[in-house]
Amino acid sequence: MPGMLIPGDLERILKHQQVAAADQAAWTDQHFCRSDGVKVLTRDGLMQIPTITPRLTDQGCVFWDKGRCRIHAVSPYGCSHYDSHMGRDEGDQVTRHGLVAIRHGAEAYYATWNQLTTQAQPLAERRARYNEIHRQLESPCSSESPST
């Protein structure tokens, strides 16, 4: 599933994709969406940390093209640091590190988040949709009915 961006990710992706400065806001809005993110418990109580994520299309991540990630060389934190084989503890540790990075770069990060016009589906729905797309991509013939 496309992972969250942390501060610095978007700038690297824009440079890699050679997006002109005048086109960056529109391009970013076409390729990313804002997510409510996650709730975390801090010393001050429960806190919501919104995140930016690549958009999902019917084929999966907006950057997935013909079996390859178009931005793999500069993939967002959530894509480059997560592995589907990670245990929960390891995944939680990676998430914490990313959320700390977001909080430290909050001003510019949330300025971008606020400019995005598309709200991501809730995480559980995105995860279910991504898993369904992934299953279909892995076995394209599975939707065909067996012959009798």
Blueprint (SSEs and pairs):
Layout: H1 9-16, H2 24-31, E1 32-42, E2 45-54, E3 56-57, E4 60-61, E5 64-65, E6 68-69, H3 77-80, H4 88-104, H5 106-115, H6 123-138
Antiparallel strand pairs: 1-2, 3-4, 5-6
Description:
The strands form three sheets. Strands 1-2 form a two-stranded antiparallel ribbon. A two-stranded antiparallel sheet has the order 3-4. The chain has a two-stranded antiparallel sheet with strand order 5-6. By secondary structure, the protein is an alpha+beta fold. Helix content is 43%, strand content 20%. It has helices spanning 9-16, 24-31, 77-80, 88-104, 106-115, 123-138, and strands at 32-42, 45-54, 56-57, 60-61, 64-65, 68-69. Residues 142-148 have low confidence and may be disordered. The protein has one domain (9-141). It starts with 8 loop residues before the first helix and ends in a 10-residue tail after the last helix. The longest helix has 17 residues, at 88-104.
What's the gist of this structure?
A hairpin with a 2-residue loop joins strand 3 and strand 4. The chain has 6 helices and 6 strands; from the N terminus they run ααββββββαααα. The protein is of the alpha+beta class.
